[in-house]
């Protein structure tokens, strides 16, 4: 059963300006594992995290550092959550998080489907 869905779009130029203007933003929004990635990959991961927050129904109990987007076995994006964020996911009865990301024409986009039991 689908528990929640979320989508987000990030303008790459605007994201780059924000990161340039506020370098601490990268450390605040991304885990150590994610930080070395190219800017467009970070923008996609930011969109994915925002989409997950929407799928969860809001940001209460969600921490940026407790959401990591990794590459799965076949290179597909996979969410890993920990701490309070993982508790929020479990609390909503979510057993699987599907995520898709794309980059094109100056934007990064992500779509999340949260699946589980109610």
UniProtKB/TrEMBL annotation:
Pfam families: ACPS. Keywords: Cytoplasm, Fatty acid biosynthesis, Fatty acid metabolism, Lipid biosynthesis, Lipid metabolism, Magnesium, Metal-binding, Transferase. Residues 4-85 form the 4'-phosphopantetheinyl transferase domain. It is found in: Cytoplasm. It catalyses: apo-[ACP] + CoA = holo-[ACP] + adenosine 3',5'-bisphosphate + H(+). GO terms for molecular function: holo-[acyl-carrier-protein] synthase activity; magnesium ion binding. It comes from the Bacteria. Its cofactor is Mg(2+). Mg(2+) binds at residues 8, 50. The keyword Cytoplasm applies. One of its GO terms (biological process) is fatty acid biosynthetic process. Signal peptide: none annotated. HAMAP family: AcpS. Transfers the 4'-phosphopantetheine moiety from coenzyme A to a Ser of acyl-carrier-protein. Belongs to the P-Pant transferase superfamily. AcpS family. This is Holo-[acyl-carrier-protein] synthase. It comes from Mycetocola reblochoni. The lineage of its organism: Bacteria, Bacillati, Actinomycetota, Actinomycetes, Micrococcales.
């Amino acid at each position: 059963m689908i528990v929640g869905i979320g989508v987000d779009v990030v303008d790459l130029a605007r994201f780059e300006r924000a990161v340039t203007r506020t370098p601490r933003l990268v450390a605040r929004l991304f885990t150590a594992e994610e930080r070395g990635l190219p800017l467009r990959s970070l923008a996609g991961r930011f969109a994915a995290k925002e989409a997950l927050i929407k799928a969860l129904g809001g940001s209460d109990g969600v921490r940026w550092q407790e959401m990591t987007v990794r590459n799965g076995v076949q290179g597909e994006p996979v969410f890993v959550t920990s701490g309070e964020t993982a508790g929020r996911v479990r609390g909503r009865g979510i057993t699987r998080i599907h995520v898709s990301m794309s980059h094109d024409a100056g934007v990064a986009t992500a779509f999340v489907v949260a699946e589980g039991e109610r």
